[in-house]
Structures are given as C-alpha cells and as structure tokens.
C-alpha cells in the first residue's frame, strides 16, 4: 500500500532542519538561560484521603508521558541533544517493555509495566503542590513517579478550575492545535504542511460548523440536559477559567509552550504576541474532532452502491446482489461476538423489500469538491494528494475503530472478583491526545484519561469502586440521501419546494515559520449544506441530477454526551452495573462500554441509533423524501426517534467480554466491512476463552493474554495454516516454495508472533517468514479473487474493504507506525474461500468459489506461484523505507512512532497492537 504523508501539526521532516539552522544563529546556552522558567513548586502535604476500594489493584499506563508542554528552551535542548522535559516520556519505556516482559508477568510485577492508579498521593511521593491562581478551594498535587495531576477541590467551581489549569499545564499547545482543527483553521495556526492541510479538510468536510452553530450546540445541550445540563455549563465555564488563568500566568512568566514562538505567535525576545483565551465554543470544536475520529459509525453508502452496481453489471441483478451480500457479511454466522450467549439485537438489517433506494447511474458519481482557489504551496502535488487522501478517509465507512477490552466475571477468577484489562487505541502522538488526571470534589470522584481540552470529567478510567472503558462500535448512525436538484446545482427539492443550499466557507492562508517551512499558500474550503446534511457527491439517478448528502445522528450534537460523562464521574450516580448502563445511555457517540467492580461486570452499546423508515436499507443511498426520512426527524434540530436502550446490545455478568471493534451481537449490523470468520477480535476471544475454561484468572494472566494477542499476526495465526494446508495438499517439489513453506510453518509452530529475538535487538525472530507473508498476502489475495470477480468488481470491493493492514502498512489515525493493525482486511474472504475449495463446511460462505475457480489443484498452483514470487522479493522491496526508516529495515517499518504534534520528539518503540491508554483493574470491595 502506498505510504501516506503523516498527519501532524508540525512538519516532522522540516522541524529539525529548520531548528538546527536557527540554532546556528544564537547560542543555545544564552537562549536557555533566558528562557528557562523560574516557576517551581515545593512538595506539600498529601492530597485529601478519599474512598478507594481497589486495594492497590488498579493500574494504568499512557505513553509517552504526562507532560505534554515544553518551553522553547526545552524544545531546543530536545532538538539539539535529545534531552526530555520531566515526565515527557517516563511511561514510554514501561509501555514498550511489556512486549518482551509479559511471559514472566505476575501480579506483583504488573506495576513494572503499568503505573499505580490508586486514588491520592502518599506523602513521600508528592513532587509538587500548588494552589492555581492562588485559589484556596483547590489544590493540584503531582506525584514523583509520573507527574500526574491529582486535583482536589472543596467547591465544585474550584475543582473544575483546577482541572482546567492542570490541562493547560500539560497540554496547552495540543488543545490549541485541535480547537483549530475542529474549525478547519489548522494551517493558518500551525503551518501549511500538506499533512496539516489534509487534517483540517478531513474534519471540515463532515463538520462544517460556523461559530453560531457551535454556540447553538452548547445552548441545545444545556436546555435538553435540565439540571445536569446547567451543572455541565457551570463546570465548563470553571474549567475554561482555569485554562485561561494558566495562559495568563505562563505568558507573563514566559514559560508557555515554545511552539508558540516557533510558529510565529509569540516573540522569544520581546514576548510580543498573544495566546488566545479559550471559550466555550472551542470545546465544541474539540468535541467534534473526537467524535469524528472515534465515535461516529456509518457512511460509505455511495461506495457500497458502486460496488453493488459493479457486481450486478458482471453477474446480473439477482446473482450480483447475492455475490455482493456474501462479501458484505452483514450478519456473518461465523463472526466473533462480544455478546456470545445467543442474544439478538436487530439493527440496520437487510429489509425483505428495499424501498427508496437511489443508486447512481453508472459512471455519473463525482466526489464533491471541497477546496477552491488554491495559491502557492496549496497547489503542489503533495497538497492535492493530501486532499484526496483526506476525502477518502472522511467518506469511508472503514473508520479506525481501534481499542480493545478483556473483562472476566468473578465466577472465573482466582479471587472471585472481576478482572478487566481495557483501554482505547487512540494512536501515538507527542504529546498524546489523552491526558491523565485524578479529580476529587463535590459530586466528582474519578481518575483516568480524558481528551486534552475536554478533561472537565474523566472520560475513561475509574471511580471509587468501579472502572469503565470503551471501544469504538461502528454501528451505522450515518445515512446518505439523494437530494434532487432544481433550478441549478445549489438548489434542491425539500418536501416539494425548491430550496437553496447553504454555503459555508473557511478561507485559510499560511506563511513559512521556523517550525514549518512550507512556502506561503492559501485556499478556501467550501461546503454546501442541506437539511439532509452536507453535500458529499454529485451524480445522476435515473437521469436526474442529484447531490448525495450525509446525515449523522450526532451532527450538531457533539456536546450532548457531556451529561453521560458527568454521570460516570459522580459517585452518587454510578453505584453498580445498572446505573453505569444508565449513564452511558446518555452518550451519543457510537461506543462499546465496559464496566467492572468487585462483584459485577457489564456492557452497553451507546449511540443515537435512528429509527429508519420501513424498507430503508441503511447500506445504500435513499431518496430525500418524507417517506424515507428517519422517523420523527426534525431538520431544525436534527433530532429523530431513536431505538430504545433495550434494543442496544447490553449485558450484565456474562462469563467474559472481549471487544476489538468486532461485531457486538447477532443481527446487530455495523457499518464497516470485514466482520466475518476471521477478525482480530478472535485473537482475544480465543485466549480469554481458554483462560475462562481453565478458571482462576488473575490480573497477570489477563494482561498476558492481551499482550500475546498484541504481538500476533492475525493472518499467520488464523489464515496461514489453511494456506499451508492447500499448498501442501500435494508434495512441494519446487525448492524455493519448499523453503518458504518450511519457514512459514516454523513461524506458525512458534506462535505466529512479530516479536524481537531479545529485548532491544530490533530484529524479529522468524524475520524471513514475516517478510515472506508480508510480501505474499497482497499477491495471493489478488491472484485468488481478481480472475473470478473481474478487475472492475475486485477494485470496487477493495474500496469497501482494504486487502491488508499489516503493521508496516500506512494506515490508522497517524498513517504508518501507528501500532493498530489487522482491523480491516480480506482474511475472512481468504479463509472462507479456501475452506470451500477444500470441501470443508462453511457457515455463511461466499457466493462462489474463487481460488483456482474452485479447483484445489488450480488453487494450489496459484498459491505456490505467488509464494515463490513473494519469497523472491527482498526486504528492501517489501519494506521500501519512509521518513522514519531505511529501506529493508523490517523492525523499523513496523515500529511505533509518537507522531509529533509539537516540538518534542521521542524514540521509536517496537510494534504492539494494544490500547494507547490501558487499565488493569480488580476491585477488592464495594461501597
């Protein structure tokens, strides 16, 4: 797969070069002497004691480190000598070390690789204590080991003020970056690097909000939330006051993040320039980014239509539809499930008699232009390539779900208490998108992770006697409507009346800075909005000109979830699994939520699932007409009738739960493709299932199951044995193929892991086998399926579901080096097809046999031919190198990079496929 330009706010290639040039013109020592802050705090007494029922058995980790702010002096030292600010990467080593340390893990050694997540800070572990802005009603204590802020307030306002102050201390620059991303204004703020252009375009396409729109979201959420809505607004205002107090203090004290100087917003000598205060609408912009990245399932209906039409063109309508449905795997009977006791939760299932479909005429679809009036560097091939990649990402249903969870009931643990290992995979950034904190105050008692700038509440973490976490669920809350055009290209029929579309624009321009030397440029982003959402495509349907729009249930409602998070932080609200489920029902993002206390486990799938009109198939575009609208839909507020909580997958005390963005339950259709017989969720389900069957599960054994799955190559563990079965169905006489088979078989026998020979060796055990499979997989998939499907249909289906997602491929929220792997790929198709060719039983088979036209002999010949070709490819061909790695460096190609969103850089770590923030919990008692 081609490597995409990494998406980050400071151009990583340019930053060191530009800074090195800058260092030549001034003495590093002089700069440091003038810029190092005198700001420091003496250690103080331990924070107030609160109820903690975890018995020192709660742990967590969030690399690279809690401190995400760096002064200009610290950035210059990092660039010149590699030195790190305190607590900037002290969680990176333990996180990386688990990959080789887990085989010998015991409960006593867990905190060698995680951090103690108990409430409070022992007096001998207090590193600093401060009263932000001199307030007497809040104290921020930081611990020596990780520098995590422990915020304790005597008033609700003071507590939230402290949370805002601590957030700005740890993530001010990052918060500023993402409030600009959410408004589509990143390039003018951080520079015009192609990666920055693509990032702002990706989000603006789906959330083109005006300032009035952002304010309306706040007003609406508060009004709908009643007393809790009013409290949320008060919390937000107090939080913002804390953020802004830190901005003022750091500005006058000259210890603000150095990126403000490097991007031209502040002058290092005179201190001229301004760091803009935060306002309420900034948090809505931040929330829109988080929701779009991790909690917005659906879309892709136009791509679905194109592949269906291609199938029907090749096979005819009836057979083409059957072929398409077999690849879609809406409700595959072999799919791994989170709720595995046979419960059914029908949602977005295929209607018997589809109504209102608006499939495009062949060859008529054009993606809606977003960027206009390009000047300067905005017109380069790199810039236009970034725009194309951003559009593809924004309009795909293959959203990067990431995140996993392993939760075991106390009936199957050694202690009799539930054990959980869970967390979100949010990519790897420097600083990290998430930040840690403990918050204790009136109506608030929690510790864990929150997205920077939204940390008025802990979003994933623990309360006094319970922990919770989430994975992305991906159920379809986005629909595509075909609005019939009238008068011109910017008017459409709404309930029979020709109605003008609303034009929303954002004009951006940039100039070179020390941080980003991209030449000056500018462009305008223009979106046409309708009552059915923003226009994303143009086409004809039955000869009529239409615009395809996308409407999601969270559109104009990104802030509504604040009530649910408020409840999760409230010890007087969450007291058990039922109240936990009630809290998560107030979250409209599409997430799977998991819970554990000392007695119970629980699960709930959140999101505003619209009730669709009878006969509407959520897979395809439908006409924008009253009969096919969501039931109870009000376009003025974008509200509708939603499926009741009982219709969402939910459970209490199942024997165990696993989730790795797999299917939730029977008949609950998710928008992404690829939920078939082989899914990365199987890596967890197989391991946890064995643990539960044996009994006596401990924290260490569950961590080991997660860590082992994190190093597994899904293709090698679950599909390669079948491939080798076909290849060796007759004697392999070709020496090249035979040698390759031997290496692959030895790797499978050894466990099919991508793991180093020894910690720090940067060389894989079974390196040759890994290289062969990495080269073989795309070759064998194409050779297996393209002859039968035909080139057009094969290409269309690969637009619905990528063929591969190996660790070295450029995928995930940060491009290559993103850790998260094997979420999307054709492994299920290969598995089902080979079993069919072998004559083995297959539930939910593909419509036809493809490998060798169904002939085992011909299939074997294809596999051996492609295997020989793969074996002959050199490491430099398989791993061609990028901005991080030399060609042929296999370990480096897989490695995880903390992608810089600021001026501090960190070393690469070895590949692991695991949550970025992760908890390990086992409560000993309950209130």
Task: Give a structural overview.
This protein has 927 residues and is an alpha+beta fold. It contains 26 helices and 30 strands. The chain has a ten-stranded mixed sheet with strand order 3-4-5-12-13-14-15-23-24-26, with helices on one face. Strands 7, 8, 16, 17, 18, 19, 20, 21, 22 and 25 form a ten-stranded mixed sheet that branches. A six-stranded antiparallel sheet has the order 2-1-30-10-9-27, with helices on one face. Helix 2 packs antiparallel against helix 3 (72-81) and helix 5 (156-182) crosses helix 8. It is globular.
Kindly summarize this structure in a few lines:
With 927 residues, the chain is α+β, with helices and mostly antiparallel strands.
Blueprint (SSEs and pairs):
Layout (H helix, E strand, L loop, with lengths): L13 H11 L3 H8 L22 E4 L10 H10 L10 H10 L13 E2 L9 E5 L7 E6 L5 E5 L2 H27 L3 H5 L3 H13 L4 H43 L5 H4 L17 H15 L6 H15 L1 H12 L15 E4 L18 E2 L3 E6 L4 H15 L8 E5 L10 E5 L5 E2 L3 E8 L2 E8 L8 E3 L4 E6 L5 E9 L1 E7 L2 E4 L1 E9 L10 E10 L2 E9 L2 E9 L9 H7 L8 H8 L6 E6 L4 E5 L16 E2 L26 E3 L3 E4 L6 E3 L11 H15 L4 H12 L3 H5 L1 H8 L7 H16 L16 H23 L1 H10 L26 H11 L18 H16 L3 H4 L11 H5 L4 E2 L17 E4 L6
Parallel strand pairs: 5-12, 6-28, 11-29, 16-25
Antiparallel strand pairs: 1-2, 1-30, 3-4, 4-5, 7-21, 8-20, 9-10, 9-27, 10-30, 12-13, 13-14, 14-15, 15-23, 16-17, 16-22, 17-18, 19-20, 20-21, 21-22, 23-24, 24-26
Helix pairs in contact: 2-3, 5-8, 5-10, 7-13, 8-10, 11-12, 11-22, 14-15, 16-17, 19-20, 20-21, 21-22, 21-24
Average the pLDDT over all residues and give the rounded result: 92
Main sheet overview: 10 strands, mixed
- Strand % is 15-25%
Report the principal-axis shape.
globular
Instruction: Kindly report how far apart the N and C termini lie.
Output: 53 Å
Question: Strands of the largest sheet, in order across it?
Answer: 3-4-5-12-13-14-15-23-24-26
């Amino acid at each position: 797969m081609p490597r995409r330009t990494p998406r980050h706010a400071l151009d990583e290639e340019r930053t060191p070069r530009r800074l090195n040039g800058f260092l030549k013109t001034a003495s590093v020592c002089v700069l440091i002497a003038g810029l190092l802050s005198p700001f420091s705090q003496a250690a103080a007494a331990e924070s107030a004691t609160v109820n903690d029922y975890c018995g020192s058995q709660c742990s967590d980790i969030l690399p690279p480190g809690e401190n995400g702010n760096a002064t200009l002096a610290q950035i210059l030292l990092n660039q010149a000598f590699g030195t790190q600010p305190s607590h900037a990467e002290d969680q990176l080593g333990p996180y990386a070390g688990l990959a080789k340390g887990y085989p010998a893990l015991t409960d006593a050694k867990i905190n060698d690789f995680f951090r103690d997540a108990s409430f409070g800070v022992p007096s001998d572990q207090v590193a600093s204590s401060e009263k932000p802005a001199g307030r007497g009603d809040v104290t921020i204590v930081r611990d020596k080991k990780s520098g995590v802020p422990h915020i304790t307030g005597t008033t609700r306002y003071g507590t939230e003020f402290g949370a805002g102050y601590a957030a700005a201390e740890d993530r001010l620059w990052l918060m500023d970056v993402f409030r600009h991303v959410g408004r589509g204004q990143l390039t003018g703020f951080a520079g015009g690097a192609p990666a920055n252009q693509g990032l702002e375009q990706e989000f603006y396409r789906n959330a083109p909000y005006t300032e009035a729109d952002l304010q309306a979201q706040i007003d609406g959420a508060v009004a709908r939330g009643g007393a809790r809505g009013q409290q949320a607004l008060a919390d937000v205002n107090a939080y913002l006051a804390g953020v802004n107090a830190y901005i003022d203090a750091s500005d006058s004290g000259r210890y603000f993040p150095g990126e403000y100087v490097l991007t031209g917003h502040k002058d290092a000598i005179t201190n001229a320039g301004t760091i803009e205060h935060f306002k309420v609408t900034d948090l809505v912009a931040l929330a829109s980014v988080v929701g779009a990245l991790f909690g917005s399932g659906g879309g892709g209906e136009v791509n679905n239509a194109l592949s269906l039409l291609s199938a029907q063109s090749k096979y005819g309508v009836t057979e083409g539809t059957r072929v398409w449905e077999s690849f879609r795997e809406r409700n595959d009977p072999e799919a791994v499930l989170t709720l595995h006791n046979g419960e059914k939760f029908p949602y977005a299932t295929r209607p018997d008699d589809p109504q209102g479909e608006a499939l495009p005429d062949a060859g008529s679809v054009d993606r809606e232009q977003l960027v206009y009036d390009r000047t300067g560097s905005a017109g380069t091939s790199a810039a236009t390539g970034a725009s194309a990649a951003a559009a593809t990402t924004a309009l795909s249903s293959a959203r990067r779900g990431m995140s996993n969870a392993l939760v075991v009931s106390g009936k199957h643990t050694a202690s009799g208490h539930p054990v959980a290992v869970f967390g979100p995979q949010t990519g790897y950034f420097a600083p990290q998108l998430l930040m840690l904190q403990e918050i204790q105050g009136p109506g608030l008692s929690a510790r864990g992770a929150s997205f920077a700038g939204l940390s008025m509440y802990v979003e994933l973490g623990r309360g006094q006697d319970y922990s919770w976490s989430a994975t992305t669920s991906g159920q379809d809350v986005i629909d595509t409507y075909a609005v019939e055009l009238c008068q011109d290209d910017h008017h459409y029929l709404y309930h029979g009346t020709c109605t003008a579309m609303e034009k929303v624009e954002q004009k951006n321009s940039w100039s070179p800075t020390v941080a980003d030397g991209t030449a000056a440029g500018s462009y305008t982003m223009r979106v046409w909005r309708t009552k059915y959402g923003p226009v994303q495509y143009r086409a004809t349907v039955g000869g009529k000109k239409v615009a395809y729009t996308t409407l999601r249930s969270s559109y104009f409602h990104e802030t509504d979830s604040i009530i649910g998070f408020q409840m999760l932080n409230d010890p007087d609200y969450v007291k058990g699994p039922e109240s936990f489920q009630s809290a998560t029902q107030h979250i409209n993002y599409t997430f799977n939520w998991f819970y554990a206390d000392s007695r119970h486990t629980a699960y709930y799938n959140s999101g505003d699932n619209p009730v669709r009109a009878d006969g509407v198939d959520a897979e395809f575009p439908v006409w924008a007409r009253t009969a096919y609208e969501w039931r109870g839909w009000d376009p003025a507020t974008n509200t509708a009738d939603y499926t009741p909580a009982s219709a969402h997958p939910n459970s209490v005390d199942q024997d165990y739960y696993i989730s790795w963005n797999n299917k939730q339950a029977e008949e609950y259709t998710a928008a992404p493709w690829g939920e078939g017989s082989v899914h990365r969720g199987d890596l967890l389900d197989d391991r946890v299932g064995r643990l539960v069957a044996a009994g006596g599960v401990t924290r260490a054994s569950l961590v080991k199951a997660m860590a082992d799955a994190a190093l597994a190559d899904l293709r090698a563990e679950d599909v390669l044995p079948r491939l080798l079965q076909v290849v060796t169905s007759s004697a392999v006489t070709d020496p090249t193929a035979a040698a390759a088979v031997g290496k692959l078989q030895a790797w499978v026998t050894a466990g099919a892991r991508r793991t180093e020979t020894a910690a720090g060796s940067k060389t894989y055990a079974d390196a040759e086998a890994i290289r062969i499979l990495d080269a073989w997989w795309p070759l064998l998939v194409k050779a297996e399926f393209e002859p039968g499907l035909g080139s057009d249909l094969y290409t269309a289906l690969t637009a619905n579901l990528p063929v591969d997602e190996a660790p070295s491929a450029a995928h995930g929220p940060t491009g290559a080096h993103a850790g998260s792997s094997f979420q999307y790929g054709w492994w299920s198709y290969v598995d089902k097809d080979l079993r069919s060719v072998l004559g083995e039983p297959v539930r939910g088979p593909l419509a036809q046999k493809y490998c060798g036209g169904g002939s085992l002999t011909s299939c074997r010949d294809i596999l051996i031919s492609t295997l020989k070709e793969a074996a002959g490819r050199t490491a430099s061909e398989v791993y061609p190198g990028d901005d991080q790695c030399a060609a042929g460096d296999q370990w480096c190609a897989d490695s995880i990079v903390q992608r810089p969103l600021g001026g501090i850089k960190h070393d690469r770590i070895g590949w692991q496929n695991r949550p970025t923030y992760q908890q390990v919990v086992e409560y000993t008692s309950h209130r």
